[in-house]
Design goal:
Oligomer: single chain
Number of helices: 20
Helix content: 40-55%
Structural class: alpha/beta
Strand order of the largest sheet: 2-1-3-5-4
Number of strands: 5
Order of helices and strands: HHHHHHHHHHHHHHHHHHEHEEHEE
Shape: globular
Strand content: 5-15%
Mean pLDDT: 93
Radius of gyration: 25 Å
Number of domains: 2
Length: about 525
């Protein structure tokens, strides 16, 4: 990686690498698309009932799934292909950004860091909210930097505005970008005059107008997304030593981040960000740009991890800038006491370690399948296996009924059971959710129940996991119930679950559960 090559050679290598990685990911998705993950099936179900807002997230992921479902004919490959395109696009934009910030050799190193990051492989396989978010954040970084550096004009502002608007509709984290942009401009006298430009404010603040639809939707739904999001910042009080609990949460967070970035690269990247942060007002503008969008929020996340548990994917967008800094450090553009210069000689080994993780992610599932141990504890696919088998068993019992098409379908338990069943049944029917928990627990609790959809008097097919009994809360709402059968499904070589299927005759209303803190009548 350290040899001196013409710019054209680096660029040709970069294009071939990105194209080769994308082609590989698409072929892999076509050959090894087994089941959607729980969140994927859940968001796919959102996409079948398009709206301006949803329980836990802004609406873009649902709109994206509706589009992908339409062009892909409902195939799982279409989901995987879209994830591959978005994940690969994000590292290509990183490459372009680092060229603008430094030079093409540094951009080549940043590209290697991005492609070999374990998180990028996951991001490029599962179509969740993080795939469009990371792509939008990367594009916003590029558009903003090109504008403030004078390398781009109105087109850069349009790119920034579009990326921000789409990002806001993808995940709440995007709302932080304009704040960081203003911090970057305020930090140094040479960039403060840019704050006087009306076009920039229109792009930054105007992008928040994209949140109008979900805000209107939330106003009509008791601000449920705000309530859900606020729970992420609640400190869970547990018995025991508070200091030890906080230390455990903090170390757990660090461990997950080393898994996201790769252990060696993670240590280097975090060290560079934290060690350069005190110099943020003294360094050149390129480094300050990456520190503001990387080191500052990463440091804030580390402090937050001392207070509460943090989801592993929360800092994902900040590592884009962190990779740019890490590439600059490897190319000797940054000189720090820590990490030491000697580590640069070991940097190719750090990249190779990440490559091992990536190979394991892709090769692991077929290898465990060939060994006769799919779903093994070490199988990367462990959590997505078996759901198609549940749907197949339900369909056997369902198909045996002469009036199967007249039955509405209900599933109890976790929301994943509902969404996986809806996706896995051949006709992909609407599947209703019965939960006996109080309050709103998922999007399914916001949608109409069977009674509200005018299905009173109709028969229902009810899937009940881990129980041989008809749900007591639903018993009185059917004139008669009967058990159609039960089955057991393997979710891996050492895991299985039992399910029961019932038929309820003539629905008479739907059970209601009290809201939290509401006393029973």
């Amino acid at each position: 990686m350290s040899s001196i090559l013409p710019d054209s050679t680096y660029h040709r290598r970069a294009i071939l690498l990105v194209a080769g990685v994308l082609i590989f990911r698409l072929i892999y998705a076509a050959l090894f698309a087994v089941n959607p993950a729980g969140d994927e099936a859940y968001y796919w179900d959102w996409g079948r009932q398009l709206d301006y807002g949803y329980y836990s997230k802004p609406p873009f992921i649902a709109w994206l799934y509706a589009f992908v479902d339409w062009i892909g004919g409902g195939s799982l490959f279409a989901f995987r292909a879209m994830a591959a395109v978005l994940g690969t696009l994000s590292v290509l934009v990183l490459y372009r950004l680092v060229i603008d910030l430094f030079d093409i050799k540094t951009a080549w190193v940043a590209l290697l860091l991005g492609i070999t990051a374990p998180s990028n492989s996951v991001l490029s396989f599962f179509l969740t909210i993080d795939a469009p978010l990371v792509a939008c954040w990367s594009l916003a970084l590029l558009g903003f930097h090109r504008y403030v550096s004078g390398k781009g004009g109105t087109g850069s502002l349009i790119l920034l505005f579009a990326a921000l608007g789409t990002g806001h509709l993808s995940k709440q984290m995007m709302m932080l970008f304009p704040v960081l942009a203003v911090i970057f401009l305020v930090l140094h006298a040479e960039t403060r005059p840019i704050l006087k430009r009306a076009g920039l404010w229109i792009a930054l603040l105007g992008s928040y107008l994209s949140l109008t639809p979900p805000l209107v939707w939330n106003a009509q739904n008791d601000w449920i997304t705000f309530q859900h999001t606020s729970h992420h910042f609640e400190v869970v009080e547990e018995e025991g030593n508070v200091i030890l609990e906080r230390a455990e949460d903090f170390l757990s967070f660090i461990g997950t981040q080393l898994g996201v970035l790769g252990p060696a690269v993670g240590v280097i990247l975090l060290s560079i960000c934290l060690c350069m942060l005190p110099r943020i007002r003294r360094v050149a503008v390129s480094y300050r740009f990456l520190l503001v969008f990387g080191a500052i929020p990463i440091a804030a996340m580390l402090l937050l991890a001392l207070r509460q548990g943090i989801q592993p994917n929360w800092p994902a967008v900040f590592y884009i800038s962190g990779m740019g800094l890490t590439a600059a450090w490897y190319c000797s553009k940054i000189d720090l006491n820590w990490p030491p210069r000697s580590w640069r000689k070991l940097f190719p080994i750090a990249i190779a370690m990440n490559l091992v993780f990536v190979i394991y992610f892709y090769a692991g599932p077929p290898v465990f399948e060939a060994m006769g141990r799919p779903g093994h504890t070490a199988d990367p696919n462990r959590r997505i296996l078996g759901h198609d088998l549940v749907a197949a068993e339900v369909q056997k019992l369902r198909a045996a009924l002469p009036d199967s098409k007249e039955l509405f379908v209900v599933a109890t338990g976790h929301r994943d059971v509902v969404s996986h069943l809806a996706f896995g049944l051949p006709d992909q029917p609407r599947v209703y959710h019965l939960t006996e928990q109080s309050g709103i627990q998922s999007q399914y609790d916001l949608w109409n129940n069977p009674s509200e959809d005018g299905l009173d008097g109709k028969d229902g097919l009810i899937l009940v996991p881990n129980s041989g009994h008809f749900p007591a809360s639903l018993q009185k709402h059917f004139e008669e119930t009967e058990k159609l059968g039960e089955f057991e499904v393997s979710f891996g070589w050492d895991r299985s679950r039992k399910y029961s299927v019932f038929r309820g005759h003539s629905l008479q209303g739907w059970p209601e559960f009290p809201a939290p803190n509401t006393p029973e009548p």
